[in-house]
Amino acid sequence: MDRTRAIPFQFNGKRFEGFAGDSVASALLANGVRVVGRSFKFHRPRGLLSAGVEEPNGLLTVGDGAARTASVRAPVQMLVPELDVHSQAGWPSVDFDVGRALDFTASLWQAGFYNKTFIWPSWHAYEPAVRRMAGLGRAPDGPDPDRYEVRNMHCDVLVIGGGAAGLREAIDAARTGARVVLAEREFQFGGETLWNGSGVDGEPGNDWISRALTGLAAMTEVRLLPGSTAVGIYDDRVTVLVERVAEASGVSGAPHRRRAPRERYWIVRAERIVLATGAIEQPLIFENNDRPGIMLAGAARQYLRRFGVAVGSRVLIATNNDSAYALAKDLKEAGVLVLGIADSRHPVPIEPSTAAASLGIEVFPGTIPTGTAGFSRLKTVWLGRLNADASGIVSSGGGTGAGARVVACDALAVSGGFTPALQLYAHAGGALAYDPSSGALLPVHPVPGVTAAGGAAQSIPAGPRMSPSGRPGRQWVDLLHDVTVADLELALRENFTSMEHLKRYTTVGMAADQGKTSTVATLDVVARLRGISPSQLKHTTMRPPFVPVTLGAIAGRDLGERFAPRRELPMNAWHAAHGALFHDYGEWRRPTAYLKPGETREGAVRREAMAVRAEAGLFDGSPLGKLEIHGPDAVEFLDRFYINDLSTLKPMRARYGLMLRESGVIFDDGTVTLLAPDHLIVTTTSGGAKNVFRWLEEWRQCEWPDLRVAIIPVTEQWATIALAGPKARTVLSRLDTDIDLSAAAFPHLGSRMGHLLGFPARIFRVSFTGELTYEINVPARAGQAVWEALLSAGAGDGVQPLGLDALLLLRLEKGFLHIGTDTDGTTIPDDVGWGKAAANKRRDFIGKRSLLLPENTRTDRHQLVGLANTDGAAFVIGSHLRVPGSAHGSDGWITSACTTVLTNQPVGLAMVRGGRARVGQEVEVYDLGARVARARIVNPPFVDPAGERMNG
Amino acid sequence: MLRIPCPHCGVRDEPEFVFGGPSHIARPESSVSDEVWTDYLFMRENRVGLHYERWLHAYGCGRWFNAVRNTLTHEILETYLMGDPRPPLTDRS
Amino acid sequence: MVDLELSVIPAGRAIVNLKTWMRAPVSLPSLVSSVAARLLTLGPDEWLMISDSLDGPGLHGAVAALARSHGMVAVDLSQGIAGLELKGMAARDLLASGCGLDLHPRSFPVGCCTRTRLAQLAVVIECTHSEPQYELYVGGSYLPYLKAWLEDAANCELK
Amino acid sequence: MRHYSFLNLVRQARRGNAGWEPAWRDADPRSSYDVVVIGGGGHGLATAYYLARKHGVRRVAVLERGWIGGGNSGRNTQVVRSNYFHSTSSSFYDHSLKLYEGLAAELNFNIMLSQRGLVQLAHSDHELEIARRWCNAIRMNGIDTDMVTPAEIKALAPPVNLNGRFPVVGGFIQRRAGIARHDAVVWGFARAASALGVDIVQNCEVTGFDIAGGRLRGISTSRGAIAADRAVMNVAGYASHLAGAAGLALPITTMALQAMVTEPIKPILDVLLISATVHAYVSQSDRGEIVIGAGADAYNTYAQRGGIPQQRAAIAAALEMFPSFSRLKLLRHWAGRVDITPDTSPIMGPTPVEGLYINCGWGTGGFKAIPAGGDTMAHTIATGRPHPLIEKFGLDRFKTGALVDEGAAAGVAH
Ligand SMILES: Cc1cc2nc3c(=O)[nH]c(=O)nc-3n(C[C@H](O)[C@H](O)[C@H](O)COP(=O)(O)OP(=O)(O)OC[C@H]3O[C@@H](n4cnc5c(N)ncnc54)[C@H](O)[C@@H]3O)c2cc1C
Ligand SMILES: NC(=O)c1ccc[n+]([C@@H]2O[C@H](COP(=O)([O-])OP(=O)(O)OC[C@H]3O[C@@H](n4cnc5c(N)ncnc54)[C@H](O)[C@@H]3O)[C@@H](O)[C@H]2O)c1
Ligand SMILES: Cc1cc2nc3c(=O)[nH]c(=O)nc-3n(C[C@H](O)[C@H](O)[C@H](O)COP(=O)(O)O)c2cc1C
Ligand SMILES: [Zn+2]
């Protein structure tokens, strides 16, 4: 604490001042704020319970607008200047909340009430009103102004928790030369020892800590990570830490001026993990144990010693273990009136009782609170004397028996024992069981590579935690979700006896604090209600994260442009400079069309397509997948994939083919070109390139390792430029090349290796448009020169670039298949007219056997056919069809559609049930519930049925 | 996140790998019955406990390899090369 | 300022991909010693040869025939693969923000090279200097994405 | 069975809620049953309920190895819809949705059905074409769906971002789709089945089958042998394992499908959004958590836990859709063992063992199918013939190849 530096902040619109080093919680307490929020269900006033992440009451909203953050835990939020903090419930205010009315009808709103009502007329009618009552705080109003980062890390030893135990473990590990990471949730190392006054190795705690830190800082292989919380341990001990980077720098607001991330998500791979996470103090269960002013004793001590704030001026202490006695001493020394210590143990061990006696503080042995009074501030506590087995009260406050006691006080510090913070051990696969002597959850078996140290490995003997008397409906077990003993009782009565049912029915432990101060108490209560020992019960599954984690931190920088990689064409800059309208096609960003000023997309597409039919067009097909297949068995290898026979392929010739999955479904299409018997080039669809490579490799490595084949993807090595149109040959001939382009020397489906403009070139005569086409491949960086040369060579002839839209239109006119558009994950070769080819190939190929299965030989499968519109209107892709005689259901759908460029006819391709046998029939076209057109089933293509244009 | 020991590259993170399903499945001749063929197509070992499976180190060496992994604990007991026989292992869990 | 330099390796460096179709492990020394290039091992059957003194076709020409006689194929990928160089104290942290590989000099010393996953891509990383300094190789079409990704990472305060 | 109503709620509250009875009876297994239902998930309980209610089968037991609903039925993201591509699927799922619409009243249990609408997002022209194909397919089968524009999507879900890495270019909506409270569906069926005399036996694991001459005769369990000549396996992630005990092989891979919730916040989202491209779906529960449906780890696992890669991918996807959720905090991340079939459709009907039936393979989407799954399986078991709605979902389709491939047909990889 630095009391010389005052820090102004706001709480619920009022201005307050704290000091540097304060948490929001300590600053509020120091300013006398007792009610920090209203409870979730019953809107009861609530004050701070704890001084740590386990806090169930002090969940506040920090900031506003786009940077608004809901449910910030007041004890762990560092106070920074001008912090704007709000309570999350309470209307019109936390101090006066009309919602409190619900508290007076609480028994109506017990566990599962919503299952029993709101049935008529329907839940949806009540839902909005109910939803408005739920939820803690509001979502931000806009995109996060902050940024986040992910960082990977490796180490030999990861020590989680930088208290005395963690520091020692880190030092021990570092001495062996190991790479050590020490993560501490707080911004300061030292844990409890920072303030609890205990020494380490006979040295004052703080001296020891500084020495330990100096020592660690000097070791090169040690990484200290303050402000970093371990939130989950996953498979193979991979651990996630969340570092609060911005908060550590003490800056608030104007985050855009910072470059630093707000939080950093560390993914740590450690050989060994030490959990030095300390323990979490538990409350006591008694009537009205939720009043503001009732606080965990350890928290009260921390606020006092660390932040100089006393939890009250007249303080009563109630405990079931030794730890709270230190608080009594500290309070007394600070001049606070300590009204006594109620200790549920009987007898109280010698050491604490003599310590109390020496301070003149009265100890009430075998005594536990049985009730409290005070609305927004605790006023009175009733104490009762437990009977021998703690199953009843000998006499209680208000009564007359010995031990009955009514204590007027303004604060009650409670300690219900400690349970080690071993959630992470549970994440790592460890099991925890209830230990009756300490009332804690302790490890049952070791987890390889994960150990606990210090407070996380201790068990502190403790007495009874629960008052046996009092109204169950007023005994809170889960403060954040307002779950009481009565809820658990009702759930048990209704047979929700499994702990997991109990959790889901009452929502106990499901709140934002994930039961950090209610899990063990739930076991106690249920055991008592069922008359069994808590050690017979299993706690519910603990899952990551240990504390809630900002979604932004998890995503890190993997958002927006970095959400998924994007690939650019080698000639991207040229396209961008020439009016390209870009879209994403798989990973690739490609020109859809090249818009001239004032032109629409449709207009451009028709112009480009027309140019190809009339003169020539230039298409950047660089993403076309290209694989080189080398080795003595290359032909044999490829022949096992294609439905076409490759064994007859001649040198320098290409063949189009389909590749199937083993199920017979079409997987990809493309050409295979034989350059030499041990060197082939395979092309794939642009989107399929990676998958085809992976597919070929899988078979090569796993199934046919004896075949001598090597596969090398070369897609990006080559720029692929398709020059298509009647003038293609003329234009290409104008460029300097050593390749004979004449029709006789270079026929359709031929390929030639040579030079173009001096660059190495591979030219293929394949056509996706139906026009004479040269598919020119030159090294990627030569692409633009060739592209520009072709454009200028053809300028006088009207050669122009075309985008994907025009290309797909042209191929549709020809009835060529577009995998993924006309086919889906069920399409087999016969469905698209390739059945014969597949059947005729004698040798086996992948997928062949499946084509003989009964399902694949049915004649009423969906088959790809052409559609001509008899009404004259354009088809809409995705419309469905009904064939004559069919009154309901669908008989198929339109997969592709366009209006032909030369003849202006609306045409389409469709998958139609038994379609090939229906050629000539009329079908009805339906779109969005209406019959929109009639169409005739025809055989494509729609232009140049003789296929003459292909040859120029 | 699994940490998978590639026999060629050492231990790497799960996202570097592609899972390939059970290994040691023999592809039948195409002359087999529909019954045998569909078993090959669809039926898959799906054991609780030790699972013999194959992985591709897609973002690394590009090699497929076999692994024996416990499907309850995710422990990888052994990895071995494609084509090697199943190592005889017993479930330690 | 961040102690970091990121640059694209100028085009012109020869990069040749070698793969073998042999089942038995092959040894490459004879190949490597005969040309002015260094060899990066990507896997048991795959290598990259890199040369600054030769161009792609030159390096390819120098090794192709010999490779073939060893049951290997050499393919020039000089124009298909892009290179980046990253140096400075923050280089390791920068890479660690998108790559799970252990880059500590104990595990990945100078001279070490591997293909791994960085920024969701398959990237070849080579440690070229203890400064530290790394060279990254990635499919050319990803270069703009990867470069922007790295620049963005560098923009985030690095520890 | 005490009737549930607001009136009774008030009445009981005034008596300290002491009068409420067990929602269902915990039974000990008897030595024989007419039908044994294995697995106390939604499908098992619904099957038992319809067997007793519609077919008068009186001696029915549901055997559950742990606690009812502890499998996927108690850990799913609650989506109910019937917008499937194939009529085989959509007619089945729409039957289910219709049963859901009457279920709260029928079971006298508020299952919190909230038909708030579900929008499937399209991120490119191609996806929009596929969406239209899909939307029309559903409409052709007489089920409500509409195409929606980006502006309409924005109006339905104000915090949505239309201009992310994958811009939203449209989508389609099923307005009758929505969510129902997963646990409530399980408990509602359990309560109603129990009231009809069904024995619900928890902590009872089925370990084997007594099969003679190809006929089922009995079942061995962790709590002793039970004689029964009819049984149905509804054990989701353990389907292969249990079927193996009956000598049957299944085309199933068990994977860990994952989901996450944030801390609860005030209502901000009143519709469900699904994107196959960014790969997540997002809704807000009635309690206020943002519920994020993630993917599955792509390998066989029974571990029922999630990992970092899926967590990071799903959260990034959710933030691509809703950037303003960035400062919300992840509260919990869990997984369920899902039984994935090659065509992502269920397996329902008889098995080669006479008297032994199977209902599994729901993979990532069987919560919405619980009422219809129970109804049609009850019919199938009671009559010995597959219910017409499930004829095409039989195990025999993996012999003929007649798959009902929803993912493939819709052009979207699940
Ligand atoms: C994260 C996640 C999200 C999902 N989201 C959705 C969604 O939004 N919408 C949707 O429709 N579906 C969704 N699903 C799928 C849906 O949850 C399941 O398909 C559905 O719950 C299956 O119900 P079931 O009754 O078949 O199986 P389960 O509910 O899993 O029940 C099977 C039961 O069998 C028991 N069992 C297993 N072995 C034995 C044995 N040997 N003896 C006795 N009992 C045994 C198990 O303990 C279990 O209780 C999701 C699933 C997950 C995991
Ligand atoms: N005398 C000795 O030699 C000796 C040795 C060890 C401990 N001790 C005493 O035992 C008591 C407990 O010490 P301890 O160090 O075990 O506990 P501690 O409570 O002092 O420290 C635990 C630390 O772990 C941190 N932490 C908890 N969960 C975390 C997470 N998930 N991620 C990151 N950080 C997390 C906490 O913020 C805390 O600082 C102290 O009083 C200490 O002085 C004494
Ligand atoms: C729709 C839905 C909402 C949930 N909301 C919460 C929640 O608010 N708090 C919580 O702790 N868990 C919540 N859970 C998760 C459950 O606690 C639990 O993790 C899940 O049912 C799986 O069970 P298991 O973790 O016990 O294995 C929710 C689960 C679902 C399906
Ligand atoms: Zn490898």
3D structure, described in words:
- The complex is a heterotetramer of chains A (952), B (93), C (159) and D (414).
- Chain A is an alpha+beta fold.
- Chain A is 21% helix and 29% strand.
- In chain A, helix 5 links the parallel strand 8 (148-160) and strand 9.
- In chain A, helix 8 runs parallel beside helix 9, helix 9 packs parallel to helix 10 (350-359) and helix 17 packs across helix 22.
- The longest helix of chain A is centred in the last third of the chain and has 15 residues, at 689-703.
- The radius of gyration of chain A is 38 Å and the shape is elongated.
- In chain A, 60% of the residues are buried.
- Chain B is mainly beta and 93 residues long.
- In chain B, the strands form 2 sheets. Chain B has a 4-stranded antiparallel beta sheet, with no helix packed on it. Chain B has a two-stranded antiparallel sheet with strand order 1-2.
- The longest helix of chain B is centred in the middle third of the chain and has 9 residues, at 34-42.
- Helix content of chain C is 25%, strand content 36%.
- Chain C has 4 helices and 9 strands; from the N terminus they run ββαββαββαβββα.
- Chain C has helices spanning 29-34, 56-69, 91-96, 143-155, and strands at 5-8, 14-20, 38-43, 46-51, 72-76, 81-87, 113-118, 121-129, 133-139.
- Chain C has a 5-stranded antiparallel beta sheet, with helices on one face.
- Chain C starts with a strand and ends with a helix.
- Chain D has 414 residues and is an alpha/beta fold.
- Helix content of chain D is 30%, strand content 23%.
- Chain D contains 11 helices and 19 strands.
- Chain D has helices at 6-14, 42-55, 87-107, 125-140, 150-156, 182-195, 239-245, 308-321, 370-383, 397-400, 406-409, and strands at residues 35-38, 60-63, 79-80, 118-122, 146-148, 170-174, 178-179, 199-201, 206-212, 215-221, 224-227, 231-233, 253-262, 272-275, 280-284, 290-297, 329-340, 347-350, 356-360.
- The longest helix of chain D is centred in the N-terminal third of the chain and has 21 residues, at 87-107.
- The chains are: A alpha+beta (952), B mainly beta (93), C alpha+beta (159), D alpha/beta (414).
- Chains in contact: A-B, A-C, A-D, B-C, B-D.
- Chains A and D meet through strand 6, helix 3, helix 4, helix 12 and helix 13 of A and helix 1, helix 3, helix 4, helix 6 and helix 8 of D.
- Strand 30 of chain A pairs antiparallel with strand 17 of chain D.
- Bound molecules: flavin-adenine dinucleotide (FAD), nicotinamide-adenine-dinucleotide, flavin mononucleotide and zinc ion.
- The site of flavin-adenine dinucleotide has 39 residues of chain D, from helix 2, strand 13 and strand 17.
